Amino acid sequence: MNVRRSAAVLAATVVIGTAAPAVAASPSPSPSLPSGLYGSSDPTYDGVWRQSLALIALYRAHAALAPAAVDWLAEQQCPNGAFPAFRANPAKACDAKLMVDTNSTAVAAQALSVVGGHGGAVTKAVAWLKSVQNKDGGWGFAPGGASDANSTSVVIGALITQHTPVSTIRNGAKSPYDALVKLSLRCADGGAFAYQPDKKGKLRANADATAAAVVAALGENFVTARADTSEETTCADAPDLTPERAAANGASFLAGAVAKDGYLKSVLPGAEDQPDYGNTADAVVALAVQGGTEAARGPLAWLERNSAKWAAQSGPAGYAQLILAAEASGADPGDFGGTDLVKELTATGPEPVTTASQEDSGTSVWWMIGAGLAAGAGIGFLLSSRNKRKRP
Questions:
Q1: Rounded to an integer, what distance in angstroms lies between the CA atom of residue 94 and that of residue 85?
Q2: 231 Cβ neighbours under 8 A, 6+ residues apart
Q3: In the prediction, which pLDDT does 138 show?
């Protein structure tokens, strides 16, 4: 997903599909901000989101994690399992005035599932998400809000951490995949996913929603998404549209959207179209998961040439998105167009803890712990999820 958790988007819970204005990043958090937080910008609307993406990206890059960063994220959780975008005072009890949301909860669950020692918190987060599932099988940003492709996709990512088939998680007769497929457009309209139906019930193609939905429809999440096999990226309508077919159609839309320039464009009312770096990074992940490294080659190369300035302005979530794109497509996040994304991301947060042996080997003790726990909990499931015809 894009670095799009702007104040207006989150506060109003409206369509999520454009990049938030770039914000200045500094090597370390401001003294006025929590010491365990990544980034120096106001965390009110994206603290949990950017923290979670940062931890996932560093984990995937086998980098050392800062215990303070993990603790900061864990302390954001409310007793009922939900997460808000940001709790300024974790010692203060969560109450009805605190706005919790599905996106923050789902991404935090994914992050805490890999850092080690937080299995109970992940289980509580997923239980809360299940409790607010809509009757159509999906989720909106706010509990009870109309289902949208982005929210449903990130929640599917959280459900995957529990090693339970997502198709069995239902509110009545509908599963999360039913909600996603319902938001898929026919090939005559591009084959993309819509964010939500508009006020007239019409579906309109949304690149951000499509990138998120392709990954989720194939049973992957931020932690697992990577190129493994090469599947078709052509669009084909079917009377009984499956999640796999909808994912292929969505990937076809993304491939066409980046074919000319190598990137997706951000369309803002009253402004000229401009490159959308975050959505392009997400498209790389989706194309890699569906079509393999070759399908993602064009937009990946464009990002390697052009994204350094954007990432520096966007801060930890931007660096994290690029790392996830690199990891998914087989590129080196340590040398991404000449930029060491891992080093830059690490510098935006608290100092990681390493031992002398870790410095020699480049292996994080936190990564080793997380990998060990994942193996004990059922690493076979994660491996089997690579088979796109065997969705969880």
A1: 13
A2: 248, 290, 291, 292, 388
A3: 98
